[in-house]
């Protein structure tokens, strides 16, 4: 289960005012006020085997349209901790928020979005939208079609308590096929080399009460997704009563291969909730 976060929205501002923290850029709340006015801040949460740079084309379009954007680094260590971290980012933002998640990032926003009255909408992009008690691994295996299990490479890593955890990577030789088949191989070779692993324990953790039960949601389903089968995404989108668009032939990284479609869903969420 994922515990409710405690409000921390004013902590960063207080530290700055006291001189305890020095930053080279304005805090997120100031950025949202100066760039967007009444427009929501779009918070983009990446998943496993990726980093926030996967959102770059989406970010460029949102910034051009005048939306403040934050794409935090998802820790990818455990679901409770990852969700708490993103929740703490939400606590620093004044004004409305549209929360967007890709892949495992969808599971994170499902938990982090709960209990924040300024989060107005959830947007799932080739993502998991679990119900309470479900895990990413469970949902990925619910329908046939995922090529991820056979392509995983695991590596042990030390945990703070002295025990050992297990990280999962995609075999670089399979990365293009499994993760991003509609991107150039010159791009996916770099992505494979720089991929951020996800803790297998985190992927197996049961989710908490889902934010989509109390918030409206939108979904982008890539039909040629070899990580999360399209059938699984359709099941989750229908259950969450999401407004859904499918992108025919798109790989798992639909935000990279079809950024305009993803932005249109974010804008649709904004229009419906402003």
Short description:
This protein is of the alpha/beta class and 274 residues long. The protein has 13 helices and nine strands.
Question: How would you describe this structure to a colleague?
Answer:
- The longest helix is centred in the last third of the chain and has 15 residues, at 259-273.
- Helix 3 (56-64) crosses helix 13 and helix 4 (79-91) crosses helix 5.
- The strands form two sheets. The chain has a six-stranded parallel beta sheet with strand order 2-1-3-4-8-9, with helices on both faces.
- The chain is globular.
- Helices cover 38% and strands 18% of the residues.
- It is α/β, with parallel strands linked by helices and 274 residues long.
- Taking the alpha carbons of the first and last residues, their distance comes to 31 Å
Helical content, roughly? 25-40%
Cα radius of gyration in angstroms: 18 Å
**Per DSSP, what share of the residues sits in E-state strands of 2 or more residues?**
15-25%
What's the total number of strands? 9
Question: Structural class, from secondary structure content?
Answer: alpha/beta
For the largest beta-sheet, the strand count, sense and barrel status come to:
6 strands, parallel
Spatial arrangement of strands, main beta sheet:
2-1-3-4-8-9
Overall pLDDT, averaged? Answer: 89
Order of helices and strands: HHEHEHEHEHHEEHHEHEHEHH
Q: What is the molecular shape? A: globular
H/I helix tally: 13
Assembly state: single chain
Low-confidence blocks of residues: 1-36
